[in-house]
Amino acid sequence: MNQALLGWVFGVLISVYIIGIWKNREVDWGHFVTLNIGGLVGTAIGLGIKKVIAESKKQN
């Protein structure tokens, strides 16, 4: 899990940096934080759904 989280944060950092260069602006750290929080929330929701599906298959 730690490697996946580190990969996510590194990927977001690189993408925000590239977007800043592309738009000829400085790095938007608010966008960086927002993407990281959104990714963590999305991962938590996905893992929760996966857990519910696995438990429902066990009961049947």
Task: Describe, in short, the structure shown.
It contains two helices and no strands. The chain is mainly α and 60 residues long.
Q: What would you say this structure looks like, in words?
A:
The protein is mainly α. It has helices spanning 2-22, 29-59. α1 packs antiparallel against α2 (29-59).
* Structure class: mainly alpha
Low-confidence stretches: none
Please count the beta strands (DSSP E, at least 2 residues each): 0
Number of individual domains: 1
Radius of gyration: 16 Å
Number of helices: 2
Helix content, binned percent = over 70%
* Major beta sheet summary: none
* Shape estimate: elongated
In terms of DSSP E residues, the strand content is: under 5%
Along the chain, the helix and strand elements come as HH
* Overall pLDDT confidence: 86
- CA(first)-CA(last) distance: 29 Å
Can you give keywords for this protein?
single chain; 60 residues; mainly alpha; elongated
SSE blueprint:
Layout: H1 2-22, H2 29-59
Helix pairs in contact: 1-2
